[in-house]
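Regression test attached.
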Amino acid sequence: LFQASFEVQSAAVRVRFGEGIRRQISSEVERLGRKRALVLSTPPQADAAMEVAADLNGLAAGIFTKATMHTPVDVTAEALEHAGAVEADCLVALGGGSTVGLGKAIAYQTDLPQIVVPTTYAGSEATAILGQTQNGVKTTVTDPRIQPEVILYDAELVRTLPVAMTVTSALNAMAHAAEALYAQNRNPMSTMIAIEGLKAFAAALPRVLDNPDDLTARGETLYGAWLCGTVLGQVGMALHHKLCHTLGGSFDLPHAETHAVVLPHAIAFNARAVPDLLAPVTEIFGGSNPGRALFDFAKSIGSPLALRELGLKQDDLSTAAELATRKPYWNPQPVTRPAINELLLAAWAGGPPA
Ligand code: NAD
């Protein structure tokens, strides 16, 4: 893993890991010197948010349960008004990337400290990146205020993640690690973290699917999510994330599912340029090449395999390819319009990558 020269930038984040650790939220609020937490969730997780607020005793100032996928700016505006009305002095986000995104959006404008309790594997809690949507356009911004200060990983909370979401959310996390292996600004530590993250999912995900209540296996997958989210926060992503961003932002495809389908195709494409850097993928998942290894793993765990299953129309493929290649960006394998057309067509049809 040695590199002759590199740079590392890591954020000061406090991470606590353990079954039942969510019950320590109040001590984390006190540790930050705060007294009025605003608890955030999506509507389906409102009950869990109420429990957190109850556990906080007098330290909860309010609850806002309207977090929405892709962080629409109008929901953020309403949450900001609520935070002001209850005089919140810190944020507690309980949920997946959507809830974490709302907390980040509020923190970006107020600099309130954030305590995040993740319930999916998306990994947003470990990054200073915020993606938000306005009038159907998704843009991202990176800023130190966006980075959550405290993360509490509690395996008991991911136990309720439905099986289908468990599969796609895990592949979403693995995509961060796979692209980190060839990131232009990778460093020996990010590569170690990425490999360990992929290994955690390879080992624990089949056990979670055998028994979704297996807390040890759930804990191992959450450990993988932390590692994969951490590399997402440290190094730049490339073609895979660009394609998913385009498909999610412009065609409203669901986030984790889109990552799950595109990943083997994007990795197969880039493996042509950087086979050595992607060799760990084949070592961990088996198979003849990295793209095929990920495709076979995704298939074995029951992942969706085709963009057409997610509702994308064949007629939309050329627009998607045009949008994804309009602005140049770094990728190990040159990104050309015909190549992306071909990649997207294969991902749309759902067969193994070329
Ligand atoms: P999500 O947060 O939208 O959750 C999906 C659904 O599952 C929601 O209804 C949620 O309430 C429910 N859910 C979550 N955890 C659950 C649990 N344990 N039990 C039962 N139900 C549960 O989905 P996601 O994939 O975690 O997040 C997607 C969003 O996160 C996207 O908007 C994406 O852009 C963003 N994201 C951002 C970053 C970043 O670094 N900025 C990284 C990854 C994802």
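Expected vs. actual: identical. Strands lie at 14-17, 37-40, 60-64, 90-95, 114-118, 129-134, 137-142, 150-153.
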